[in-house]
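does this look right to u?? adenosine-5'-triphosphate version
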Amino acid sequence: EDVEVLHYYTSGGESRAVNVLKEDLEKIGHTWVDSAIAGGGGANAMTVLKTRVISGNPPKAVQMRGPAIQDWASQDALVPLDAVSGDWDNLLPPAIAEVLKYDGHYYGVVNWVHRVNWMYINKPMLDEVGGTVPTTWDEFFAVADKMKAAGHTAIAHGGTPYHDAVYFEGIVQSMGVDFYRKAILEGDAEALNSPTMVQVFDILRKSTEYFDDATQGRPWNLAAAMVIEGQAGFLFMGDWAKGEFSAAGKVPGVDYICAVRPGNEGIFTFIADGFVFFKQNGGEATEGQLELASLIASPDFQLRGAQFKGAIPALNTVPVDSFDDCSKKAAADLQSTAASGGLVPSQNQGTTEAVLGAIRDVVTNFINSDQDSASAAADLAAAVQAAK
Amino acid sequence: MRPDKLVARIAIYAVLGFFALIFLAPLYVVLVTSLKTLPELRVGTMLALPQGLNFDAWGKAWSSACTGAACNGLQPFFMNSVYIVIPSVIISSMIGSINGYALAQWRFPGSEIIFTGLLFGFFIPFQAILLPAAQFLGMLKLANTIPGLIIIQTVYGIAFCTMLFRNYYVAMPLELVKAARVDGAGFFRIFWRIFLPISLPIFTVCVIWQFTHIWNDFLFGVVFSGPESRPITVGLNNLVNTSEGVKEYNVDTAAALITALPTLIVYIIGGRYFIRGLTAGAVKG
Amino acid sequence: MTGLSIRNVHKSYGNVPVLKGINIDVAEGEFLILVGSSGCGKSTLLNMIAGLETITQGEIAIGGRVVNDLPPKSRDIAMVFQSYALYPSMTVRENISFGLEIRKVAPEERKRIVEAVAESLQISHLLDRKPRQLSGGQRQRVAMGRALARDPTLFLFDEPLSNLDAQLRIEMRSEIKMMHKRTGKTVCYVTHDQVEAMTLGDRIAVMKDGVVQQLGRPQEIYDAPANMYVAGFIGAPPMNFIPGTLEGEGSGLVMSIDTGAERRRLALPFRPADVKARPGQKVVLGLRPERITAAGASTSDPLKVRVDMTEPTGPDTLIYATLNGKRTLCRVQPFAAPKAGEAIALDFDLSRALLFDPESGARLDGGLAG
Amino acid sequence: MTGLSIRNVHKSYGNVPVLKGINIDVAEGEFLILVGSSGCGKSTLLNMIAGLETITQGEIAIGGRVVNDLPPKSRDIAMVFQSYALYPSMTVRENISFGLEIRKVAPEERKRIVEAVAESLQISHLLDRKPRQLSGGQRQRVAMGRALARDPTLFLFDEPLSNLDAQLRIEMRSEIKMMHKRTGKTVCYVTHDQVEAMTLGDRIAVMKDGVVQQLGRPQEIYDAPANMYVAGFIGAPPMNFIPGTLEGEGSGLVMSIDTGAERRRLALPFRPADVKARPGQKVVLGLRPERITAAGASTSDPLKVRVDMTEPTGPDTLIYATLNGKRTLCRVQPFAAPKAGEAIALDFDLSRALLFDPESGARLDGGLAG
Amino acid sequence: MADTIPADAGLRKGLARPSRASVWADKWIPLVVLSPSVVISLIFVYGFLAATAVLSFTNSTLMPRYVGAGFQRYIDLFSNSVWWTSVANLFWFSVPFIVLSLGLGLLLAILMDQRIRAEGALRAIYLYPLALSQIVAGTAWQWLFNPEYGIQNTVRALGFTSFEFNWLNDSRMAMACVVIAAVWQCTGFVAALFLAGLRGVDEEVIKAGMVDGASMPVIYRRIVLPAMWPVFFSVLLLLTHQAIKTFDLVVAMTAGGPGTSTWLPSYFMYNFSFERGRMGVGAASAVMILVMVVAILIPMMYLEKRAQKNAS
Ligand SMILES: Nc1ncnc2c1ncn2[C@@H]1O[C@H](COP(=O)(O)OP(=O)(O)OP(=O)(O)O)[C@@H](O)[C@H]1O
Ligand SMILES: Nc1ncnc2c1ncn2[C@@H]1O[C@H](COP(=O)(O)OP(=O)(O)OP(=O)(O)O)[C@@H](O)[C@H]1O
Ligand SMILES: [Mg+2]
Ligand SMILES: [Mg+2]
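got this back:
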């Protein structure tokens, strides 16, 4: 059976992880029809998906995350995965299971779990300026100042709304998981337009002083390359960036350090990347779709895919012994935060595209102008309200 | 030559030359980048000449660079584009020419309204009609196929082609049709025997224009294609966005040039006729 | 049998009437000229005969058959246009044989006809050229050849010579005339050149504003125009119109003329009874330039005229003078030419003079010469 | 002082010589006509006088001053073009005053001049129109007004009337003539219309292939053309050229003429000593149409001629006949017009006949009439 | 012509009374020929636009959902500051773009009209950017403007180490970069159109100007250029159309950034319809863009037509 897979896994480790899946699928006698649509952080792929669905010809499997899964499921476009979901309830942390379910049924299968609130530090540079891994923003700026003084770019940043938002999210979380939940996930106007949020924007403003001046349009992987090559000290990016480091032959703890962002200890912001399966001609799930779903959920792929992608397996039964130190820490944190309530979806996962876009508009505008923090907070509240 | 005249000539050439350099700069940069190796890229400036003619990046972009999970380079996309472009250019030019002929030479009550109505199709932003178009193609069972793309590209090219041809045929004396009708020829025969043979200049303009536009189209190409029918612009987009750590600018630029090569060639070969055709018909001054 | 009959034909574009009831019968083999100033509807009428325009009202019959509803190709006509309308992409040969080809004439037959036509028009050596490689006169011949090859019952010409220069025009004019004589076909020929009108046609229809002003033989129209428009339109250089007041003298009529050199009352050759005007009324005296000549020995009573300007055209000399305040032209022999400013004695041959109403332009004399 | 002097002027485009040594002196106030068939270099010469083309060799002087190196604006000339070349975006007023404005004439002065010029050309009511709102004749007047306003020492005209229809042409012709008389300026006027050439100029330069064939007064050129080209070019309808063989008879010369109706030897009025040809040699007899008229009572020895075709033009009737195998035109009075095919008795007035060499076209008679 | 061509029965063959169908066909064929295009246009242009207009009055988010929402989507749109930013940006993009393309194109056309050598080569050089897709052109210019390996880096490598050229990262100057790329792409075409127009101006008019004593600049300014209104209008129409439709260039060069400083209405429409899952608002913006198109282009088409009529 031809299984057309629409995805935007086009960079680095992503494409290798996808290739693993492809080989697995072809081993059991199906044909993987690759529909990669790069660009725009998946926007192009989503445009294609919409027109495909509307033309009555959706791809069989689609890379998807976040509330989009529920949206599509509510449109009755997806096939339920009851046939393969078995005891996923026991294997997945509830916070993650929730994003895959609609109306009590699983509609998505998770590939792996990303932790977003990571930061990467170029170890030689940190050593050069005699710093330690910062755990608060004050500590962070102290180290950053030293790097700046030594003539380095302190923060490697990619000037895209996407990276801007990723950076912003970390600051919000440093104000506490409840604040994050209220402000970002629930879009609470009061929280969004609070003094705390003003403080967030202040930190954001201060951070921009440590960017270099060529950020505009730089993809995140090039920002990662700056840290890899020693051109910059810090990178704020999810664990997928680790793939870039390992692809460059860098070893955690030796060449670079991965650490939780300042003020983020005890918080795990996740992105559960997954696939959903579109009904063909409005009918039942095809054999290929179900087999692909179970392949993804198999410990073998969970292990290898997560490794390539720099993520961690979503299923708690998969051993992570073979992972690097960063991933081991993430896996441990996953379990502990799941218990403590610190496991929250990243905004990419936890908000609608509309809200996400509204947040990005305000944040990216703030970074690229000299707006003051108070009015940015007010704008944010207004924009999120309008988009809800 | 008088000295003031000489100064004027020098100034003219200086200005023209200056702008020629500016116009060529991006092409030059892209070209030399595509001929460099990665280490070379890191050391020199973008203006520096490559150390040698190194077509490795071209080879990689053509046949082995990864675009998503597939690592076949641009090759498969290239052929898709060819399959899409050739029929749509031919069909849209043919329809445009016969429309233009009917509108210019067989004016009837309402023909101006029809012309304006058709012309409007040229001005709409295409993002606005993506979804209904997708639904329609789905109804025709042509969604995400090359025939579907051909239909879309043809349909949205008709307005412009019709305008070009109409403006060209309007300049022809109405007596030609009259003479031929008296000679006993009908609508199609007059078109086929009399107007088509004198339409070469405007056909050149139309074909060049349509070719570049359809070849370069990304929006329709990405939205209405399926995995087996993606045009080269989509391939280029995937390739440029697919990266392993270090961005291979030489491969990206080579890919961009491969993508642009057919249109550049069409312009270089047909450019003269393009201008001539424009002078002959499209512009009235 | 009539070759062409136009019965009460009207044409309007939208609400604008262009032809207002045209009635013309053309005998078989006759050469009819349609003449008139620009925009009077000549082309429109021709296009209606050809079937290229619809007929708003009235009836057109070709060879006795009403053709109102026939498409052009079924009317058995051939047409030559002002712009020639040669098919630019075809060779001369193809241009000529196109109509035959459409009518499914066999190739050998076509070849024979094309060559015969080309021969008769002396364009055999041009058969393989494209129209753009031809001179104006050659194009004209090809256009004619295209019409001839079809051998229709009716030829239509729409100002076929107006794009040619004067010399070529004269030449082609006589060729068309010979062609007509040879083939004996009915011809309907539009022009706004009066010389063409005079020299080519069996009859002329002078049109103005969609109405036929006069229909008649050329000399008839030249000598006895129905009104001032026709009189002024036909003839080059045009008829002189001298304004004045009709006066009675004895049993005859006279008109005062002020020549700049003298003031005199000229006796008019009209019988007062025939003239639709009474003494005292303002009239216009029409007199053709060739009727005013240098006075010779035989001139009984020459008129002295002050010369404004002279123009030696070669064969003749034109003299400009001002009569009753109006510029008047006289055609004299070259050797009689005076200098500007001088006075000259002229012979006014009033035997063919005409009298018009200055307002309506209608003829006032009884049509003596008609 | 000469108004314009052209001394041994050559012009080549690349290697192609277009003018091959032109020498013309134009007196101040003289009206010179440059005439010749298309492509003979008339416009090129005019453009060189205006400074719009460089001079390959030779010298041009205007008002005594050599202008070879002066740009057009310093030559004090005005030029009227065939296409009129009105500035399309300017009103008539602006068109006329543009040259003055460039020369920094004060606004009030400009206004005065424009209005005076417009007055004299009767275009005052058109001053605020754009060129496209004008008829051909009106455009022509504006073009003239533009030239007049500048009040230059030399006027150049490049076929200014060729875009007008016949009637307007006649009218504008006389206006140009009057304008010249009024202003007394030197004029150099290009045309290829022989009537214009004959009627307008003080002198005519007939050009062919970049060489002046003849330079002289109009009547001189009409009566005594230097060669067959000039003879055929000047005069409308053109001179008849009847081929034949020179024969001696007694002390005189004769030529056999076959008219289709009879065959006769005509006595030529040349003294054999003056003629550069001997009996037995092939020659061409040149005879203008108006010299062949209907035989009257006074005609001593009329020639019977078979008529091919007649063309009544109104004032005259043209008769086509074939003499010695060559189409010949005769101009007779309308009432004398015979039918085609009939024979008519014609009076051949050979007193102004010319004799040419059929090969070179050179005059063979002694220039009797010159 | 009876004497040269014997009457032939075959010649008259086509003259039989025509069938009713052929009379009908003669009259209606032009319409019949046009009707497929008319139908296509009714479906693919007007029909689809109507569908989009309908969407703008619904609650559609991720996918079309036909639940009426009145004018709510328009209220959303008009209260969205990004929309107004996009509209303002369109002004700041299109005015400089049109003015520069026109001016530069005209300059190049006039200079090329001076009987210069190598005109063909120059024309090809100015015209080739038109052959490139906006994606490729935008990417190439992005590299050039990128301070790390673009112009700034190059100039610095030449020794001017303090040279600053980083417009792409400056929200006030980023639009200038897009404008430059757009001008680069269109100017050659504009120049070609103007050149064609200049070649159509009667040469005698220029000669008349010279004889009248005007210098070449004056002749162009006062005589030639005013005569080129129709061409000017055609070019203006094309450029305006191009400006309103510019999309790929922004995507490739700036993706709307920095911030929203290079968002254009077309980008807004795409982004809201497909990326943001706010299809209703996207559709409303599409309708507004159409309104703009009609409001700007229809009068211009009318003016162009009039200019052409006047010129003839
Ligand atoms: N398609 C049309 N629509 C409206 N009016 C028209 C149309 N065709 C011709 N006319 C008008 O009809 C009148 C007669 O036109 P027509 O062409 O028959 O004149 P004409 O006598 O041939 O003039 P010319 O000597 O200039 O050729 C003109 O006033 C013209 O403006
Ligand atoms: N720029 C040029 N380059 C080359 N040849 C030229 C150029 N301009 C004119 N000629 C040639 O020079 C010759 C004379 O041209 P010119 O325009 O002076 O003729 P003309 O006597 O004015 O003809 P017409 O009566 O047709 O206006 C022609 O053979 C023409 O082809
Ligand atoms: Mg007409
Ligand atoms: Mg000339």
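Residues 258 and 326 of chain A are 6 Å apart (CA to CA). idk if thats expected tbh
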